[in-house]
Specification:
alpha+beta; three-stranded antiparallel sheet; two-stranded antiparallel sheet
Length: 145
């Protein structure tokens, strides 16, 4: 599967071809297409990134920044969880985040918001009251003899 990178600069967004990696020199080269402003023609740049001096912590921090932005976009659409544990490989570039959330995640989102928590509480109370009313009505209804 070919990897594609997205370059976002100014108003331009462009797909670029898969990176070319030189293992001996720890360098990766990509072609970046950048529009200076919306509606303008794109300019291309051959970008070579030297990874020889970057630390694992720096790479993780960079990936974390990318992951946070990607996750926040998903959460805005599907609800913001109070906690989340994510496998980094599941949100790597080129991967889509699952659009659905589990019932546990949905409940956690509702319980984290005081307004939604009260609405859920009120709905549960009303549901239980309706069940009790139905049972009482069934128990006190005259029997046909």
């Amino acid at each position: 599967m070919a990897r594609h990178l997205h370059a976002v600069c100014g108003a331009g967004v462009a797909m670029v071809p898969p990176p070319k990696h030189n293992m001996e020199m720890n360098m990766t080269t990509v072609t970046v297409s950048t529009k200076p402003m919306a509606g303008h023609a794109a300019h291309t740049t051959a970008l070579t990134m030297d990874f020889s001096t970057v630390t694992r912590e720096q790479l993780e921090a960079g990936f974390m920044a990318y992951a946070i932005v990607k996750l926040q976009g998903n959460w805005r659409k599907n609800g913001i969880p109070p906690t989340a544990t994510v496998n980094a490989a599941d949100i790597a570039p080129g991967k889509r985040i699952a659009a659905s959330i589990t019932s546990d995640q949905a409940l956690a989102i509702v319980l984290a918001d005081p307004v939604q928590r009260k609405a859920l509480h009120d709905a549960l109370i009303a549901e239980e009251q309706a069940k009790l009313d139905a049972e009482l009505e069934a128990a006190t209804a005259p029997t046909a003899e």
